[in-house]
Request: fold
Amino acid sequence: MTESQVKQVDTETIEDEKENMTIVDFKMVTFSLAGKDYAIDIMNVKEIAKAGRFTYVPNTLPFVLGVYNLRGDIIPIIDLRKFFNIEVPDREDDAVENMLIVNVGEQVFGVVVDAIDKVLGIQKSTIQPPHPLFGDINIKYISGVVESAKHLYILLDIERIFNFKFAKESTAVAAETYTPPETAAGEAVPASERPAPAAASESAPKAAPVSAPAAEKTAPADETESADYKFVVEELQNLKKFYVSPVNETWCKTRFKEWVQEHGGKAVQLQSAADADQFLKGFTSRNTGVLWDKAYAEEIYKLLPDNSAKQLIVWNPGCGQGFEAYSLACVLRRRYPDSKIRIYAHETDLLSVSNAPLLTVPAKFAEDWFSPFVTKKVTGEFTFTQDIKDIIMFEYHDIMNSNTLPMVDIIFSRDTLSFLTPEAQNAVIADFDEKLKGNGIVVLGENEQIGSGSSWGEKTVGSLTYYNKQ
Reply:
């Protein structure tokens, strides 16, 4: 190769490198877990820190190390190694940990890893789809893999890990018209993906099926047998992962008839997520996503049957941010003052279940029926008494996965089944049957039912219903 040819090759190499530098369109922070290379999108990283002496919070998940005061903000600290079931040596209380301070939506978390490497810029097009063989973690938490400088990095989907989904469009929330479900208990639909409040702006309409000419159409005797109803059922599933089944079809059929009247018999099909939210308005149970008001608490109190057992076990799948679990704990303490009570509060939304033990009580509730169950902190904030906190065990758990719960006296699962596939609904109801004691009860959402023709008994107290074994 001549000198001129060498210079030409060197020039081409330099130009290629310059071109590669100019098209870097993705930056990630790299780190290691158990000797393997991982990375997350730098847009989710607020800062890098070293810290220790975390404040322990009782009744939290094994991978929650505690909370930490980050310049005045109290943030939860998650050990990513424990989350992925990676063996971690016993740590000393004053041990300093490597942390990524990450933003997930409006929440801030500290994520503990083995070591933090560097910030790496890559071309987004070089990210390859994940494969089950990459890493020791569930593939659903991996957004892709990328090779750089002879290192293979596993790119984690931090939003998926924390079960968070950003809104795809700017919306104006009309909270007074619709209260979204507090949570989902099945992996099929995280809490953040439940129906959102009705929005002022809508996403692009979805093309509706072409209807037959009016002269050729014959209106069915029952509107819920029409093609429009079937289309609505399909779109509720597609847009909101809401599955119409015997669990909720009574409500759905009644709501569809109202929907037809509201629209004057025209444009009744759902063409956007906002339409689906509007259709589902009124489905969720009262006092969802908030601490219960006195009237609702009294109804639940009257619903609970007599039970003289010294220990009561309660299962609360889909506990959300903890409002339901704490409200239920207070009602149970009133109803069964002499019993030892344990609530297993399960949720697949990591943000919610991690923050639940830190819940504070607004003053207006502390002065209401909750007053015997709250205490005032030195900061002036109200929190639940230690007795109430000790009742609840918050756990990150998918209702579709097996668990080691003891036999339970009460299953409290509002507005959860409807967001599982019909097959999953049947499996969960069978699980209820297996885990419920002979004298136990199941409470579902106010617009849900176990289904006619089942082996369950049904009893209504006031406006609420519970189910028991026949």
Notes: The first strand starts at residue 26 and ends at 33. Residues 3-22 form the longest helix (20 residues). The chain has twelve helices and 19 strands. The mean pLDDT is 81.
